[in-house]
Amino acid sequence: MRGIIAEGFKEVYFQDGGGRAMGLSQVEINDIDYLDLDF
Question: What gap in Å lies between CA 15 and CA 23, rounded to an integer?
Fold first, then answer.
């Protein structure tokens, strides 16, 4: 689950859908205590 969330953050938050940080190849999430998502 952490890998899926990290990949989503990489594409949406850090790379902004292809607009920035294109050289970023890996995002790792550690020590998640609580995550609340709203769609």
Answer: 9
Mean pLDDT, contiguous 10-residue spans, the chain (39 residues): 83 81 84 82
13/5 Cα distance (integer angstroms): 11
Query: Which residue pairs, CB below 8 angstroms and at least 24 apart, start in 8-13?
Result: none
Q: Do residues 24 and 14 touch, judged by C-beta distance below 8 A? A: yes
How much is the pLDDT for 30? 85
Residue where the block lists tokens 């205590």: 33
Distances in whole angstroms, Cα of residue 30 to Cα of each of 3, 8, 18, 21: 10, 15, 24, 21
DSSP 20: S
